[in-house]
Amino acid sequence: MAYDKFSLDGKTALITGGGRGIGRAIGLAFGRAGAAVALAARTDEETRAVAGEIAAGGGRALAVHCDVLVRDQVLAMTAEVEKEFGGIDILVNNAGGGCPVMPFFDLPEDVWDLHVDRNLKSTFLCSQAVGRRMAERGGGVMINISSVMGLGPHPLRAPYSAAKAGVVALTRTLSVELAPQNIRVNAIAPGFIEVARFWKQFPNYEQTVRRARLAKVPSGRMGIPEDVGDLAVFLASEASSYINGQVIRLDGGLVTTVYYKSEDSRAEWW
After folding, report:
1. Could you give the CA distance from residue 197 to residue 168 in angstroms, rounded to a whole number?
2. Distance between CA atoms of residues 209 and 56, nearest Å
């Protein structure tokens, strides 16, 4: 017997950064759960491919071109999704990205601006545009993708850590401010999620970065994008209707500590 509280039938979800990695996994999971899914990104070929996968599984999907750092494009994206599906019930602020390992005193201003905007400003712009429409329609759900790097100190990654901490603070603030409009706002803070396109950039990945990280995870495995997708379905569904303002660590039990204790540690961790 199916447990209907996990169903997203009749709902429309908009996922930013929906063409690859975690965004793709969330989109596919939402499609399987019954939602109509809009996938937004600047990479049209990738979002169209994910939309095709959802459609092949019997779902409804739309690929939308959008630079989530440009307000006018965010507003146009919101209008396009509403025109296609009639409204937006679920927003996943997934667009973002990591920054290079760099000592704080060497950090250029433009690198700071780029990564804070990419991870925090994008969440602000999309939450404001879509949230306003949710409030007008009677409510909705927002899920922000933060990181364990936003929950503790992470030397050499100041812009990313600060931006993801900002996503946490924004999540908690909006959960209170938007609650009267029947909008729930939660965040997921992933730990070591194995996304091939990014992690494989490390030299000797299996024997260096992966081995060091895996040794720190009590669950004994790396995370995969599908882990984030499954949690996102729960947070989007009625099964989590009394969860609001929470930041859920999805990290296999990883405990944030002071990581940088040797010259080799920057290669081993972030």
Report:
1. 26
2. 36
**Active-site residue (options: 3, 160, 205, 260):** 160
Strands of the chain, DSSP E: 12-16, 36-41, 61-65, 90-93, 140-145, 183-190, 247-250
Phi, psi of 90 (to 5 degrees): -135, 130
Half-sphere exposure of 14 (CA within 13 A, CB side): 34
Q: Tell me what percent of the chain is helix, strand and coil, each rounded to the nearest 5.
A: 50, 15, 35
- Return the amino acid letter for 151: L
Buried b (16+ CB within 10 A) or exposed e, 230-266: ebbbbbbbeebeeebeebbbbbbebeeeebeeeeeeb
**Token digits of residue 76:** 């146009």
- Report helix, strand or coil for 15: strand
Rounded-to-integer distance, Cα 92 and Cα 29, Å? 13
Q: Which structure tokens are listed for 44? A: 């049209």
Check if 260 is active-site: no
The two structure tokens encoding residue 220: 């004994």
The Cα-based distances of 230 to 31, 237, 256, 260 in angstroms read 12, 11, 23, 32
Q: What is the pLDDT of residues 74-113, one digit of tens each?
A: 999 999 999 999 999 999 999 998 878 899 999 999 999 9
The tens digit of pLDDT for each residue in 14-41 reads 999 999 999 999 999 999 999 999 999 9
Ranges under pLDDT 50 in the chain: 256-270
235 closest CA partner among 193, 191, 187, 190: 187
